[in-house]
Fold these 3 entries.
Entry 1:
Amino acid sequence: VCTGCTHNQILRKKWFPSKRLVPIESRIQMYRTLGEGGCNVIADERPYVTETVFRKNIPNYTGLYATGTNLFSKEPLAIVTREDDTEWSTFCNWILHTLMAAEKYNITQTTATSPDNNFPTTPITQFGQEFNNMSLYAIQAVGNYGEIYERNLERLIPRDGLDFINTQGDTGLIYSFPTGDLTSIGPGPTKGGSLEAIIEQGYLVCGIGANKATAGFGEYDSTNQVWSGM
């Protein structure tokens, strides 16, 4: 287990005596230690202990590998935005909840603009007229949350339990929040803020992890050699 992480603290406190743990400084060192027989088990976030990720990082390992199903901690992950640009943070939250709500209402990438779907169609006026239909544009571009998960994570972490949208109170903590009043008109883009810069340049620049051995929402088009996605 990596030193300085919460996994280390949880394992020491609840499950194993310190003498049974092998402290490791980095993930790649953790993989190497397991592959070389220096330890029998590794503990980390689910995306980093899958067999695909392990064998990608230690290609010479030919032994058996199995991933456990028990979760020893539940630490929520979230998107992070700058504290001094609340409008951009709000914009990102709208998109995130839109993608989760789309799955709840069974609106997919192919049906986003269909007149027969039951997705709320009230324009979002908070960010200016050109963003009125940003919800439908987002779904049309990348699909709903379930489609994104299927496309990017399912091969590494089969979706279950906490990864499902909570619609009946019987799954995890992923909720589709009520949208509230969509008819009010908020302020325009903050002067010098992220939205203003994006509008001026005409496109959004995102950082995407280039290591496809690790779970993520970036997609690589090998034909055009271009990264895209959430």
Entry 2:
Amino acid sequence: QASLGFTQLRDPPGEPRRTMADEKKEPKDPKKAEKKVFDEEDEAFIGYCSFQTLDEDGIAGRTVGCSVQAPVHIISVAGADDVVFEAQFLTSNPLFFLEMRNEERFYLFGQWWMDGPKYSEAKEFSYMVPIRMQDCHKMAETTANEFKAQAICDAIGSSSTRQMQVTCCTEEKKFKSKLAKVHLTIPRAAWLEYKAYRVRMWKASKLGVGGGGGGGDDDEEKKEEKKDE
């Protein structure tokens, strides 16, 4: 049979034939799912916070003006030494607001968490040390309706000596002082330490010895493995 002048290329003996898919396939990163949970740049951050009035026995109020909840946004620039979280509350809302009562027996308490609007202890990354509302009023008198408090992240080492600053702003509406805005400032080192703890929680949940931290990332890891096949 006459040759048409084409030379057939053969793979080297003993080696599997390579395809274009093999050339495009990138080496699998065993830490890929872990990095997604850690989220170093906070690209997937979704946060919420809630604040409520407590009495001197630590019991939450159940009447209008005793609790409020809102999404939390990171407002600091990427890579800043401090990570600043902000939440704002509509003070003109007739039902869902928090009144700062100028009475000795009332305290302000707050919590911050991640991943969804429903509070979960496993997703909490900070909580406010209860502060007497009467003391808040005294501070606000000299700092233009602003007062400061402290917050703690129990998940980091030496947490009791590494308290974080909370700055609250109030507005006067119909002769009531209402919580309008809250800033939580967490040093970046502490924030990264918390997120490393969050990764450990996720690993523990995969082993069936814990819960929380990362949601459905195990399913995401399986999806990524199928894509790589």
Entry 3:
Amino acid sequence: AAAAFLLSPYVPCTALGSGRLRSRQAVCSELTSLLPLSENEGIMGALKDRGITTATPIQEAAIPFIMKGHSLSIHSETGSGKTLALLLPVLLGVADRAVEDNARILVLAPTRELAAQLAAEAELLIPPAATARTRLVTLGEKDAPTIENLQSASVIVATPIELSKALAAPDRELSDWLPGAIGTVILDEVDLLIPAKNFKGKKVG
């Protein structure tokens, strides 16, 4: 798929028909005009419960590209709606479907705190009756990931370090299974995920 880079500074939105625009305000669309939310009442209800009906500028720019299957690199300020811009289009594709290989969503974040926030955000968007489930990969806890519980998840959220350690298990069962199980990858805070310095070492894979 084609890749695009979107730079969208945060500009407050005013929904169409909501009155006169202030300076530097952008007229943004209703989310229902960007996404087929009517086909998933659970996600639409979750958004309405949180008072989210209008797209932010970054959502209006990014969502149509993602819905067409394009790969994107988007940049916008904190609080501009990047997380929903990335999650909503892909969650619509898995929320009401049985878990399938090559259809899961892998979300990588630089810290466990951010990974936990992203997992919680995904959980809020997935209705309780949906077949989709979110799994946060954590190590050093009683519920460390196994191939069985990851196979039951539609959304897998992790930090690169914890995911790589989980994949380094001696039996290789998880590392053999995961690459063929993922259809979409989201890299949050990608500038923090890429090492600042080059280093030498053995190649993996």
